[in-house]
Amino acid sequence: MAKLLLLHGPNLNLLGEREPTLYGDQGLSEINRRLVAFAEEQGHELACFQTNAEHELVDRIQMARKQDIEFIVINPAAFTHTSIAIRDALLAVDIPFIEVHLSNIHRREPFRHHSYLSDIAVGVIAGLGPQGYELALRSAMEYVAHGGKMSAKIHGIISRFPETVML
Q: Which H/E stretch holds residue 72?
């Protein structure tokens, strides 16, 4: 059983209400419930955390090492483009992670194209809406199960989404 952590950045508490044509109509609590249930079905433990405050995300990332978290899935939201502090926290704890974005940040405004996290992530999933979280969670489980490597199973799934998934 792996201990996994799902982190959500600013404004994701408004999912389902905020720009549903861009982010979908599922609320964050519904997404979290579905993912926690899926993790449990697979024999893993998933903790979820959302905050609008950068320092709280940094604190939660730092706490992850003490809690023996084996993998992090993070949607840093707007902090993607601004937060060196989150980058440094992820580097400091040395826990593998996947960066997730509901929308395809590369099809949006130019200021959203840069990520401070992508180059240190195991992978990046963007543009698949809430399904991106499930793909990230499946990938995290495979990564942990295969000793820090992506299995052929995950590469097969990803090859079906060449424009929106980068691992």
A: strand 71-75
Q: What is the pTM of this model?
A: 0.85
Residue 23 annotated as catalytic:
yes
164, pLDDT greater than 50: no
Task: Tell me what pLDDT residue 159 has.
Answer: 46
* Catalytic residue (choose from 44, 55, 81, 101): 101
Q: Which residue has the tokens 């959203």?
A: 112
**pLDDT tens digits, one per residue of 13-58:** 987 766 656 656 688 999 999 999 999 999 999 999 999 999 999 9
Which residue out of 8, 23, 116, 133 is catalytically annotated?
23
* SS3 of 3-35: EEEEEECCCHHHCCCCCHHHHCCCCHHHHHHHH
Residue type, 82: T
At residue 89, what are phi and psi to the nearest 5 degrees? -65, -45
Q: Which residues contact 3 (CB under 8 A, 6 or more apart)?
A: 44, 45, 47, 67, 68, 69, 70
- Return contacts of 155-162, CB within 8 angstroms, 24+ apart: 161/128, 161/135
Active site includes 101? Answer: yes
Interior CA angle at 91 toward 8 and 71, to 5°? 55
For 49-74, what is the mean pLDDT? 98
